[in-house]
Each structure stands twice: as C-alpha cells, then as structure tokens.
Design brief:
About 85% of the residues lie in helices and about 0% in strands. By secondary structure, the chain is mainly α. It has one domain (about 10-445).
Length: about 450
C-alpha cells in the first residue's frame, strides 16, 4: 500500500510539472511566435515588391542587428538564471539589486554601440559583402536600426527579469503589442508612404521604444510585490558587478559563436546571388519561428530549474527536466510534419517572386528535419541557464562551431547551398550531443548546485 501511495504521489507530481511547464511555456511561445511572425510580415511586405534587392537588403540588415544586439543576449539569459535562483532563495533585495545592475550594464553597452555605430556598420557590411545593388538599401536600414540599441538592450534585461520571476504572461502582452504596432507601421511605411527598407527600419525602432515603455510599466507594478530594497552601493562599485559579469562572460562568448555561424550562413548565401540569399531569408524566418516555439520550454525551464536550484531541490529539478523533454519532443515532431505537409504553401504566401519561391522549395527538406535535430540543444540551454552552469553552453557551442559546423561546410561547399544547410543542421546536432554529455557529467558528479566558475 505504501508503495502504491508513493507511486500515486509521483504521478500527481508529474502531472503538476507538465501543467506548470505548459502554464509558463504557452505565453512565451505565443510571444516568441510574434517575433518571427513580425519577420514574416517584413518579408511579405517587402517580398511582394517587384525587385528582390529590397528583400535581400532587409535580410542583410536583419542579420547585422541579430549579431550586434543578440551579442548581448546574456543580458536576458543571465538575468533570468540569477533572478530565478534568487526567487528560490527568497532574497527580494538581491532580486531588485541584480535588476538595477543589469539595467545600468545595458545602458552602458548601448551608449558604446551608438558611439561606435559607423565602424560597426561599415565592418558588418564589409564582412557580409552584399551585391552592389543591395548595399545602399542595407546601409540605410542599418543606420536607422542602430538607434534602437538602448530600448533593445534594456528590454533584454526586463524580459529576463519577468521570466526569472515566473511571470511569462507579461512577455505575451509586451511582445505581442509591440509586434502588432510594428506590423501596422511596416504596412503604413511601405504600402502607404512608398518607403522601402528604411521604412521597415523606422517601424522597428519606434516599436522597440514602445516596448520598453510597456515593460517599464509592468516592472514597476511587479516590484510592489517584491520585498527588500535596492542596495545602491552595488550600482557604483565595479566589484559588485563581478557576479553578473562572471555568469555573462560565458554567455557572451557562446552567443558570439552562434551569431558568427549564422552570419557566415547568410554571407555564403549572399555569394550565391540575391535570389538565393532571399530564399534562405524566407526559410530562416521559418527556422526562427520553430526556434522561438521550442524556446518556450527552455524559458520555462530557466525559471523552474533556477528556482529548484536556488531552493536546493535536485529531485524537483530532474522531474522538471524530464517533463519538459517530453513536451519539447512532441512539439518538434509537430513542426516537422507541418512543414512536410504545408511547406510549399507557406513559401508561396511569403513571396511572389518566382525564382525565390523555386529556390526555397528546393531546400525545404532541410527545414523539415531541423526541429527534430535542434530540439535537444534548445532544451538543455534552458537547463544550463537556470542552473547558471553556462560555461557548459559556451564549451558546447565552441566545439560545435569549430569542430563540426565549419569542417562540415568546408567538405560540402561543392554542393553550394545544400552544403550550407547541411552544415547548419550539423551545428544543431553538435550542440545537442555536447550538451547531453555536459548534462550527464554534471549529474554524475552531482555538481548542479555548484556555482559557475
């Protein structure tokens, strides 16, 4: 009877875990979906113009700012892991102080980007080497987008803080409202005012500052329920930032490596012509859609596993990881089937340029395989961020980029764009395998409660 009772308790606990994961994941999924859907609208608005160079220019400009801004994605990820553990430890003063420190850090980085905008943009365009017909529009787009830096980086911090405090519904409200505004402004700029790439850039920057205003309002509202007070001396003493820097340095290297791989993908596609670059941009928009949905489970794990680690409850930690793994695999399978059955339809909906459509359809099978190959890497990233074992994320990415991605591309480059897609999927596979090895080693040595070195 006792064993039966224990089994019933475990089953009830597992059901509770699934419910909790979905409760935290679905707002993140919907809010994350709004991000690539915005990209879909950008492409749909500009992709129906008669000349593919405008679409290619937006693809180049978006790649630049994916690299520039998401290089500092540690402001989101690092904040989430640290805040989640502080929630588990019930330290309200530290919760407030880490938020304030991260905002200060975000503003300092944004100021640096604005001061160095010219060399940053010129270097990025030199490295990506777009066609001369594409270059002017790409440059105009970039010169406008850079002024959104303060809003983007502060939003990273606030989004991480909301997730760490397990309030993912705020993300849904924030990102959906911001992206709806962006969509309206996109259509207005291009279809009504007759603008091109610069219109999409202005729409994005305006929406970014709107998003920051909304995020600050919700942050102020939530802080009323957080105990304690900010330790203001921690904002002015450099050594007080060391715990944040210690976690974020690994995330920074990891993110740079990932963005380097993605930028290399875009640059190699650009060398194959504007139509191939535009087709890859269409398919990568779907890749981002899949990634953001799978990230919903990762975000939930960041908050939940971080809280479990902060409370010292490893049993709960493993239960949550197992439940999220089942959910993630099911969603990955769904996306593979969706693009297998309806991929052609989605591509036709995005662009009316015949050459771009034909090229994108040729490479659709790689998109079908992507969710099942990538699901493990997304899931374990969430685990490592919540536990602040982020050095493992850095090492997994370093091995995958240096020893898998670039070598695979080198040996398959004769297959042109097919070689590029094989290399990209190999990157995801490498991350999954190396992350699993890291998870196993931490579990075997029981070092999940150890702080990041």
């Amino acid at each position: 009877m006792a064993s039966q009772g224990g089994a019933l308790v475990r089953i009830a606990s597992q059901k509770s875990d699934y419910k909790l994961i979905w409760l935290l994941s679905w707002p993140v999924m919907l809010s994350n979906i709004s991000q690539p859907l915005l990209g879909l609208v950008d492409i749909a608005v500009i992709g129906h113009l008669p000349d593919s160079r405008f679409l290619a220019a937006v693809a180049i400009g978006t790649t630049i700012f994916s690299f520039v801004y998401w290089s500092f994605g540690f402001l989101r990820m690092g904040t989430t892991g640290m805040i989640a553990q502080l929630v588990g430890a019930r330290d309200g003063s530290a919760n407030r102080t880490v938020l304030a420190q991260s905002i200060v850090l975000a503003l300092l980085i944004a100021l640096t980007l604005l001061l160095l905008q010219q060399p940053i943009i010129e270097t990025a365009l030199l490295l990506l080497a777009p066609d001369q017909q594409v270059l002017p529009q790409a440059q105009v787009y970039a010169e406008i987008r850079i002024f959104g830096a303060p809003a983007v980086l502060c939003n990273y911090v606030l989004l991480g803080w909301f997730v760490g405090n397990q309030n993912t519904k705020v993300l849904l409200i924030l990102l959906v409202s911001t992206n709806l505004l962006n969509i309206v402004l996109d259509v207005l700029a291009v279809n009504v005012l007759g603008m091109r790439a610069e219109g999409l850039a202005y729409a994005t920057v305006i929406s970014e500052y709107f998003g920051l205003a909304v995020a600050c309002w919700y942050c102020r509202k939530m802080l009323r329920k957080v105990s304690g007070a900010i330790v203001y001396s921690a904002l002015t003493q450099l050594q007080q930032y060391y715990p944040i820097i210690k976690v974020n340095r690994y995330l920074f290297v990891r993110t740079i490596l990932l963005l380097l791989a993605m930028s290399f993908f875009t640059a190699q596609g650009a060398k194959l012509g504007a139509d191939t670059l535009a087709a890859n941009a269409v398919l990568m928009t779907f890749v981002m859609l899949i990634s953001h949905v799978l990230d919903g489970f990762a975000h939930a794990l960041e908050a939940l596993t971080g809280k479990a680690i902060g409370a010292g409850n490893l049993g709960k930690f493993y239960q949550l990881v197992s439940a999220a793994a089942v959910c993630s695999l099911g969603v990955a399978l769904f996306f593979s089937m969706l693009f297998y059955l309806l991929g052609d339809f989605f591509i036709h909906a995005l662009t009316s340029i015949v050459a771009v459509r034909e090229i994108a359809i040729d490479y659709l099978p790689w998109l079908v395989a992507m969710p099942l190959i990538a699901v493990t890497s997304y899931l374990l990233d969430g685990v490592f961020i919540g536990a602040t074992q982020v050095q493992l994320m850095q090492n997994a990415m370093l091995i995958s980029v240096a020893l898998v991605y670039f070598p695979v591309w080198y040996f398959t480059q004769g297959w042109l764009n097919h070689g590029l897609w094989i290399a990209l999927l190999s990157l995801y596979a490498g991350r999954g395998v190396t992350s699993c090895i890291g998870f196993y080693r931490l579990s075997k040595s029981q070092r999940w409660l150890a702080k990041t070195a």
